[in-house]
Design goal:
The complex is a heterodimer of chains A (114) and B (114). Chain A is mostly beta strands and 114 residues long. In chain A, the strands form two sheets. In chain A, strands 2, 4, 5, 9, 10 and 11 form a six-stranded mixed sheet that branches. In chain A, strands 1-3-8-7-6 form a five-stranded antiparallel sheet, with no helix packed on it. In chain A, strand 9 and strand 10 form a beta hairpin. Chain B is built from no helices and eleven strands. In chain B, strands 2, 4, 5, 6, 9, 10 and 11 form a seven-stranded mixed sheet that branches. In chain B, strands 1-3-8-7 form a four-stranded antiparallel sheet, with no helix packed on it. In chain B, 0% of the residues lie in helices and 53% in strands. By secondary structure, chain B is mainly β. Classes of the chains: A mainly beta (114), B mainly beta (114). Chains A and B meet through strand 4, strand 5, strand 9 and strand 10 of A and strand 4, strand 5, strand 9 and strand 10 of B.
Chain lengths: 114, 114
Amino acid sequence: AQSVTQLGSHVSVSEGALVLLRCNYSSSVPPYLFWYVQYPNQGLQLLLKYTSAATLVKGINGFEAEFKKSETSFHLTKPSAHMSDAAEYFCAVSGGTSYGKLTFGQGTILTVHP
Amino acid sequence: KAGVTQTPRYLIKTRGQQVTLSCSPISGHRSVSWYQQTPGQGLQFLFEYFSETQRNKGNFPGRFSGRQFSNSRSEMNVSTLELGDSALYLCASRSAELSNTEAFFGQGTRLTVV
């Protein structure tokens, strides 16, 4: 079985500040990890993915995440927040015989203050 | 290249009715998955189809069913609608069957049951 825990349902930062969204996973097989972003009334857009290559993964819009097996974590960061980053972010895990099934965390709403 | 297309975008149904939602994947993608998104339960996996075969199924009652056609388009059906079925239903397509392949999401169908 696989699961994801996102610490903090709401995160608030000032424009230009560091963004850190936390994700911890549980998986009995080598995991594949994804971060998605969702804007209001929209679907999910892939930010980045970890698929057992480099542990530091760079994605779109300046986001990156580091896979830490020892900590079972895959935290998402961005050095400098922009107003357009305000959205809901989801961490997801797949792997093994889950095929197309993604198991999502509960999501973190990011608010960016001017 | 067109993205994942879901129709309709919005739907209002009465308790007890049934509903069919449609999803056209990205051209060439043979994997289609469905998710239910609600404020209380978050994103939950419904089922996945690959080349017209259901490969994985989430923990939903039998009122929820789906199918995939030879052109990879997919439909999901919900019978005997309940108020709790009100949700955003998201469809995702993938280019390959491996679980490390990223999923591309449609904008969703917002179902309201009254």
